[in-house]
Sequence to fold (326 residues):
Amino acid sequence: MKIVFFGKNAANFHPGFQELLESPAEIALVSDALDQPGEAELLAQADVVIGVRYDAGMPALSARLFQLPAAGYDGVDFERLSSTCTVCNAFGHEVAITEYVMASLLARHVPLADADARLRQGDWHYGSGGANGLRTELGNQSIGIIGHGHIGRTVAARALAFGMAVHVANRSPLENPDYAGVYGLEALPEMLARVDIVLNTLPLSPDTKGLIGKDAFAAMQPHATFINVGRGAVVDEAALFDALSSQRIGSAIIDTWYVYPSADTPNPMPGNFPFETLSNVTLTPHMSGWTEGTVRRRTQTCADNVNRLAAGKPLLNVVGQGLNPQ
Fold:
């Protein structure tokens, strides 16, 4: 079996991959640009391609499996893939993203860095017994989670453990007696009006693009904190910037963006608006799910699917088939 790791992102999942396979395989790494001798041919002839994108201008594939080492599949043009090619994704990032969400929220209630800096100057501002240093508690906050997939469910469990009131908006019906409220996506404004924190976990699809826009931000409470760890384009960028710059909402923590590094622009600003000038937003570089544990778990998922393909077993996390009948 011929396996190709396509691009810089996919290369992160190559170390140790061979040892996870149950049968011999030829493994190659090719660059994103496919500009080195023989790279395009290696990609075209592979039985399995591991990568995060496939679009116009790339060679036709003979692969039976296009394996994403990530959850999102919006970078894959299904219409260009053969109908004999199965597309699968990989998760394993929900624990890391949940820790990111909880850490970013806890930092607002437990100011460890500020307390440390003050005490080094002999300032006991946060000391017990003083009226001025009283802190707030995360457990007294309510959170509205948009989406109840791997990330949404894991965040909800951690939030409940902290004593938070958990509300969830999801496309399909839910039943959980521990949740303070459950809503369909059509009732999203109703949930947004009731919570202190709004968390988007949705992937990008034609149905979710721009789902969170001007009306959604208008429905949020003025003190609300908005967090995006789903795809950037699920949130209307102009509406987000306006809500923050006008202080229509209190603050935001944004990890998924609208502008990403490229070969021509390796260090761009992450938006088409100057988010970096706003004091009420925390910007992070799409890091929430990027941990050693995530890489290890996704590598295992990719290897499991290669082993299943070789053995003729059903594949895991099937997203769909290619749409090209050739």
